Amino acid sequence: MERKSPSSLPLATIFLVVLMVGSPCQSRPIVASDVWEALPTYIQLKSFISSESDDISCEQSYGFLPCTTTVLGNVFLILVYGYLMFRAAKLLCDGCEILLEILGPGLIGGLVLPVLSSLPDAIIILASGLSGSKETAQSQVSVGIGLVAGSTVMLLTLVWGSCLILGKCDLDSSLSKDPKDTKGFSLTGSGVSTDIWTSYAARIMAISIIPFLIVQLPAILHTASGDRIAILIALFVSIFLLVSYSIYQVFQPWIQNRRIAFAKHKHVIAGILKHLSVRAVGRLLTDDGVPNTTVIEKLFMMIDQNGDGRLSPAELRALVLGIRFDEIDMDIEDAVENVMKEFDTSQDSFVDMDEFVRGITKWLNEARRLSEGQQGASIHLHHFHEETRKEHHLLGGQGGHFGETVKNPVWNAFKAVMMLLLGTIVAAVIADPLVDTVSEFSKASSIPSFFVSFVILPIACTSEAVSALSFARRKKLTTASLTFSQIYCSVTMSNILSLSVFLGLVYFRDLTWDFAAEVLVILIVCIVMGAIASFRTTFPLWMSLLACALYPFSLLLIYILDYVFGWS
């Protein structure tokens, strides 16, 4: 699968031109220092031929990258470094998607790729806490917590709400009718439906906030003596959750396929019962709700075309072929095989009358149990049929086949590995100057570095947002499920992987944990959106307004708690 990305050459060229020419730039003394002092200083670029004694007003990353102490200069550098970080994140994301198409879910798709997708965040957090002395790390570590909080809040508010708006379809009986979108921006008449697996992803996301609760326990209990212990316990819990989530991701496709296969078999059962109830001479259930054995035996004789007293696989196949399975891609041979396995208790490859009666009786009793409160045999069967159809719909279908449609898999795998390698290198190189630039901008503008990293860095590091918005436009249940699942997965990885890195830095560098307001915002947003997404699969359009409103609420809450009530 070919992927093309715009070149970074034009931006890099502009970057070099601005650095080398014009009055906004300053180099180390090539001419007299008094001439340079008369010029305004926006960006400084240390010359490779300068002496060690030369004075410079800002510290340059790696000894040669540009730096500045002015607001405009830092804005420019943040845009450049942020763009390069975005390209690195995009390379990692695209490389992961290509490998996933080739290799499919499992160890690579479930463990390696989610970690690589979260790599830019982890690298920036490392850069914020490893640089310089302990005092420097303590001042810059707010960039790391700002990135963790900003990524989580942005994904669950602005991106989530935008995906709901772009992916909306008409709602009918609590389900979206994709890709039908005729009700405009009706707050209750249009919305998005997802499969049940997306709800499970939201529940896992809600569980991932446990380390945040643990690390805040000393503050909740008003004791400072347990800070280090709480940080260490939270670190171990976050690592445990990361390993557990990775294992779940590895085996989840297998679990999902088993659930879907079972749902399809239940739909076959419901279809056969509904079909037999129409053909039966009499009612399959008596007035007391008991299976009518006499009617079932007559049905057996109707299906037994050759009258030999037993049903062959061919006769069962003829029965299944006569059933219309609504909107479900049914494998007839697989359905016949499953029915034969369930009915043929003697394992002679035929179903006699006693086996048929026992099998149909078992199905009818199951349908009656699932339709408690419904009156009448036909209503029982109709309700059972509708419930099985809805269950299959919520499970989202059989899923895709991986590796079969990818042309030149060897070349594409090589290209994906190169993209991952290049993305990792760029992210590792750019992370430290990006963190330094954010800190310098904070000093120059008197805006706390947390707010800069909260708003700007998630945009640079979260390339998944672009693919999520693109997927949402397709207005289908499968793509909507993938879109929202990706959002919940990204938040989960931020909550456990990025937090693990952050907690490790705080603990091993003996830094102070003083981020109560930031943690509270993460908890509020994750709990609210997790509660909404965990127990429902259809989201009316009005929920997008609620989600988007949480973003400014989060910023305002942090400002009030930190700068009005003095939490930090």
UniProtKB/TrEMBL annotation:
Matches recorded under CDD domains: EFh
Keyword Acyltransferase: no
Any one of the GO BP annotations: intracellular calcium ion homeostasis
Keyword 4Fe-4S: no
Protein's organism: Corchorus olitorius
Domain of life, per lineage: Eukaryota
Record GO terms (molecular function): calcium ion binding; calcium:proton antiporter activity
Listed name of the protein: Calcium-binding EF-hand
